[in-house]
Amino acid sequence: MSAAREPGVGAGQRLFVGGDWVEPDGGHYEVVDPATEGIVGRAPEASPEQVREACAAAREALGPWSRTPPEERAAVLARAADLIRARLLPYAGLAQAESGATTATARAMQVGVAAARFRRYARVEPAEWPIPPQINEAGGGTSHALQAVGAGKAGVMGALAVRQPVGVVACVTSYNNPWANPAGKVAPALAMGNTVVVKPAPQDPLSVYRMAEALEEAGVPRGVVNVVSGRAVAVGETAVSSPDVDMVSFTGSTAVGQRIAEACGRDMRRQLMELGGKGAAVVLDDADLASAVAGIGTTFSFYSGQICTAPTRVLAQRGVYDRLVEQLALYARRLKVGDPREADTVVGPVISAAHRDRVESYVELGRKEGAVVVVGGERPPSERGFYVAPTVLADCTNDMRAVREEIFGPVVTVVPFDDEEEGVALANDSDYGLIDYVWSADVARAFRVARRLRAGGVGVNTVGRNMEAPFGGFKKSGVGRDVGSYALHAYSEVQSIVWPG
């Protein structure tokens, strides 16, 4: 096993830079279990100079890795997938301790999804597409084409579109899923021949070092993968502004995304941004309420509400509004809040005490704005841990801050509407546009509404996802698309090669 493995809380994790496990210049800080408030381990605090070294190492490794045959790159990813899958239980235990996820979530949705993503991008896909020949008639065509074949002469121009790696990618990842989120960036980036510098979220970075360890054992060359962590803002800022970085892939809040975009814009650096969400769930008056309540309830309580795809802004047509509020409240009351290690726990803690306070402040703000707290609104009894009760705010209006702003906790707001036109208008009256949802027994009606929603994805009578479908947001929910083959496009540049036929 690698020397990187942390033998205990006291030892401290090392950084992974240029293929070496190195001691951090800034020492270590404690990673806290949000369920117990105990110490999970000691994470490394990189200095800006170490971040620059990581970016330089990725730059040096780029040439050889990008020229490595795709089949060989895929074999590395496949071996990494096998290693992650083989260590699912210890990896999930660490992820649970860092993030507060329930056991089922840590195993299936964190480590399990990460292994599946490495396996997915171990599949080699074509990187070249022929373009139909263009016939340039004498005296016609574009000026460039005429220059190529001789002015006034006819010619046939062949063309090929070729996907090329972007270069060095800085992957800045979110705290709500310390496995699936970085895997969704690293795996397609490596598959396309890029090299990466991963800056994990400061709250739960230890899992990302285990991922790097698996990649090292799988045979990834030195410098192709680098991991640098830290609580200081300078760690992330140095990574995203490094002249060695060609692209930034970020998942997190819109506010931070805007700052990263400003830094990228100064050097025209490529961006892939998955930002905030305030998903609208449009429940029409002919909807199957049991299905709608189950979908909304499971998703807004998933990860204790710390998920950007959650339908936390419910828009209910008046014909079903009262029944929907009542059933959502019943559902929320049945959700067990507590120790995520207990098998029947549904809602574990939020990530930190500070975030718990933030979520609770939004519930209180909703009260002051005139919303009715139907269920929740009080801190669950617990001696330790950062717990928030699942909360339903009813009688809301779309101008309330609790309705408009991303709370990122187990809180759902319910807004009534009269007709389909108003429902669509309310759904689109948002700064966000990541994933919306529509429930209706009339599938044609549901699809009609779905196509009018300004969101990157729409679930029709479901909160499930197709993992080959493009994922990303409209408006302030992000820039670009990934998942499936779309991620290969996201982590590549398209080059045109043209020749006379």
UniProtKB/TrEMBL annotation:
<dbReference type="InterPro" id="IPR015590">
    <property type="entry name" value="Aldehyde_DH_dom"/>
</dbReference>
<dbReference type="Pfam" id="PF00171">
    <property type="entry name" value="Aldedh"/>
</dbReference>
<protein>
    <submittedName>
        <fullName>Acyl-CoA reductase-like NAD-dependent aldehyde dehydrogenase</fullName>
    </submittedName>
</protein>
<keyword id="KW-0560">Oxidoreductase</keyword>
<dbReference type="InterPro" id="IPR016161">
    <property type="entry name" value="Ald_DH/histidinol_DH"/>
</dbReference>
<dbReference type="InterPro" id="IPR016163">
    <property type="entry name" value="Ald_DH_C"/>
</dbReference>
<dbReference type="InterPro" id="IPR016162">
    <property type="entry name" value="Ald_DH_N"/>
</dbReference>
<feature type="domain" description="Aldehyde dehydrogenase">
    <location>
        <begin position="21"/>
        <end position="497"/>
    </location>
</feature>
